[in-house]
Specification:
disordered C terminus
């Protein structure tokens, strides 16, 4: 929580920043240069994405929580590959009836690489934050 008497400290090293993003109804915590497995999206491999549904951005010294999204934050990513998960086995059996059913399922997933997390915060925005009173 931001203390109004102290200035906002934003990390000089971009590797210390993380974000919580929302993609197709699921939330993922990501950092710079991280690889994330998500459900299949209607995009091609190698395509660049800009994710503006950022729920939270933070560092060790600072956290910004959106209501519901942080409007000044964006996450830049690129699609690395499209693959399928390991087979999930579905086995159904009714005892003493001679009924057995074996079925499998493989989900199509995409691997995205987080290239950059950008969070623009101005001095006037930093002064508007109030300390949390519990």
């Amino acid at each position: 929580v931001h203390d109004p008497s102290k200035p906002v400290t934003y990390p000089q090293d971009p590797s210390g920043i993380f974000a919580v993003i929302k993609i197709s109804g699921k939330q993922y915590k990501v950092t710079n240069d991280a690889s994330v497995m998500i459900e299949k999206l209607p995009f091609d491999v190698g395509q660049k994405l800009v994710i503006d549904q950022v729920l939270m951005v933070g560092t060790k010294e600072y956290t910004s929580i959106g209501r519901p999204f942080v409007e000044t934050a964006k996450v830049y990513a690129s699609i690395e590959e499209e693959s399928r998960t390991e087979k999930a086995i579905i086995f159904k059996k009714r005892r003493r009836k001679g009924y057995q059913k074996n079925q499998g399922h493989r989900q199509t997933v995409m691997s995205i690489r987080i290239e950059n997390i950008v969070h623009e915060i101005g001095e006037e925005q930093a002064n508007n934050y109030q300390p949390l009173k519990v």
